[in-house]
Amino acid sequence: MRYILIVKGSRYSEASLKTSREHRDAMAAYNELLARAGVLLAAEGLQPSSSGMRITYPVHGGMPKVTVGPFTLEKELVAGFKMIEVKSEEEAIDWAMRMPNPSGFGDGEIELRLLSEDVNLLHVSPTMALEADLRDQIDMLKKS
Amino acid sequence: MRFMMIVKGTKDSEAGTMPSQELLEAMLRYNEELAKAGVLLAADGLHASSQGIRISYPEPGGKPKVMDGPFTEAKEIIAGYTLIEVKSREEAIEWAMRMPDPHGYGEGQIELRQIIDATDLTQNPDTLAMEASIREQIERRKT
Amino acid sequence: MSDSSVLRTIDAIWRIESAKLIAGLARMVRDVGLAEDLAQDALVIALERWPATGIPDNPGAWLMTTAKRRAIDLLRRNKLRDQKYEEFGRGSDLYTENDMDLTMDGEVGDDLLRLIFTTCHPVLSQEARVALTLRLLGGLTTDEIAHAFLVAESTIAQRIVRAKRTLSAKRVDFEVPVGEELQDRLSTVLEVIYLMFNEGYSATSGGSWIRPLLCQEALRLGRILAEIAPAEPEVHGLVALMEIQSSRFKTRVNASGEPILLMDQNRALWDQLLIRRGLAALERARRLGRPLGPYALQAAISACHAQARLASETDWARIAALYEALSRVMPSPIVELNRAVAIAMAFGPAFGLQIVDELASEPSLKDYHLLPSVRGDFLVKLDRIDEARGEFERAASLTRNVRERELLLKRAAECSNQ
């Protein structure tokens, strides 16, 4: 299953503030770790929103409106993302937790999102069968 | 869906003559093929009808009449059967076509019959309707 | 034969031949994705020609020969494209005619085994293993798989494409693992089959219904595996478990789709043929002379129920002993809880209560509602009604299932009325 780890923007990322040497090394090491584990599909950083633009469609139809950056609400902004392919949600969380704080100045946020193509095919685990047996047995106990 | 491949009796099977080594081996290979394809449920041969009995009810509600074998009309007698579980009627036909001629000497006949099977829930309109409504719900959830 | 009946026949032939075809081709080209493409190409050619020429006497061999020719064509084209002709020539020893003919006989079972170990390879996610196994070994179309899982066809198609890409990117060997690795990998294969089965068998989150295709496919794969890996007791154990569970198919759900628990099932409707097959598979596992593994033990427990003509004739002492054995090969609190109930049935609720009380400190069961629920039942039997009420209330507060909560609260209320 594919997850996207969205690194949220901050006032630092919006100001293009360079993070410390250690932080950059840690991030590079993290990317390498992902790549070597064969889970990394993409990792990109974005320029501050000052070079971005927004296209907004009015509620009742009509022509879209274009606004140029910078935008406010830093936490709603995306500063970068990594896409990983993993076998379980737990694994995705585990990888996300290993990421160094992406902002580099504290006050960072990572959002984990499952790609929409990844609907769950399986809803069961082998223990569910044992649980079904347990329910049968409890029922027999009750009625005995 | 389950099918029964019924092997009809012949003069030989009724006489209790064992099939040739060649035919036995071919049958064995065929059964093995069925097993390896995961479709074989059961395969059995029957003794000649001379060892069988028939119980008939000549009068509705009356007493049954018991008749000892052997019975005439070899072609109406069942000499053996193979039970398979497959996905389609065509698959059953394909397997039946692959069965070796069960009796050699031009008398062999295999009858293929589908088993009435309530476990085949795909055919149950209630289940189908239930599935359809669930699919619908899922589709709606997606949008 | 009319065109449409030829097409339906080809469909049936494909179902019978495709796994063998893909497995044989994969051994030659060492890539299951490519092998499937080649097999599909052969199918397309058959679909074009057979309606006119009629179906050949040995359609499997015809498809294999045609696919082999495609493989050779592909190789030649690659050779022309590739300037390093010599290198390619050396690398293509796999494609000699001799080797290909081998594929036609004898080794079919081995090839199928290689194929299932590949489609259930640990580099793939659980879901990808299930989808790819259904596709390559079950010969199901993406549409059929999507239908079985109630998802869009594109979802399944994507999964399968990605799974095949992963196998080739990670250079997964088309081999049956040997030595110590074999047991681990085999249990992965068995897990995939059992997951497939349970996915079809159990009431899923969306409601309770049975998806027979998945059950049937899992059972068929298990039966195939039992023929091509007959020396593995757990393979027979799993087959036994699935056969016996399937024998209750008809009786598990009522007309409105609600589950019927074992106690209330109409035992006369249990499928005796499947029970007999299950018992035979269990016997095969036993005869191999090794200690029974988790699947065989679960099958043996299931067999105890299958062999009891009436619920009251259940051999609970034996079930308790089997759960005890299961808890040693597969330690788990839920197995213990099952054992506690079986022991209570066999020897009285006081003994069951002892085990449950020991489990109370188990952290993984801290919020598990069936623990207080079982405890409540034991206490009722021991006439400790006040305590029982507390347990049912606690169980009700822990379950997220609305219906179950209602039932538990009702039981708590019954305790108050006494």
From TrEMBL, chain A:
Domain YCII-related: 1-103
InterPro entries named among the record's database cross-references: Dimeric_a/b-barrel, YCII
Source organism, top-level taxon: Bacteria
SUPFAM superfamilies in UniProt: Dimeric alpha+beta barrel
Name of a matching Pfam family: YCII
Membrane-spanning parts: none
Gene3D superfamilies: Dimeric alpha+beta barrel
PANTHER family given in the database record: BLL7163 PROTEIN (PTHR35174:SF4), BLL7171 PROTEIN-RELATED (PTHR35174)
Similarity comment text for this entry: Belongs to the YciI family.
Listed name of the protein: YciI family protein
From TrEMBL, chain B:
InterPro entries: Dimeric_a/b-barrel, YCII
Coiled coil: none
Signal peptide stretch: none
Gene3D superfamilies in UniProt: Dimeric alpha+beta barrel
YCII-related domain span: 1-116
Top-rank taxon, per record: Bacteria
Spans through the membrane: none
Family: Belongs to the YciI family.
Official protein name in the record: YciI family protein
Species of the source: Paenibacillus mendelii
TrEMBL record, chain C:
Name of one Pfam family that matches: Sigma70_r2
Domain RNA polymerase sigma factor 70 region 4 type: 116-167
Species of provenance: Paenibacillus mendelii
UniProt xrefs under PANTHER family: BLL0085 PROTEIN (PTHR47756:SF1), BLL6612 PROTEIN-RELATED (PTHR47756)
InterPro entries the UniProt entry points to: DUF6596, RNA_pol_sigma-70_dom, RNA_pol_sigma70_r2, RNA_pol_sigma70_r4_t2, RNA_pol_sigma_r2, RNA_pol_sigma_r3/r4-like, WH-like_DNA-bd_sf
Protein name as it appears in the record: RNA polymerase sigma factor
Residues in DUF6596 domain copies: 185-285
Annotated RNA polymerase sigma-70 region domain residues: 23-79
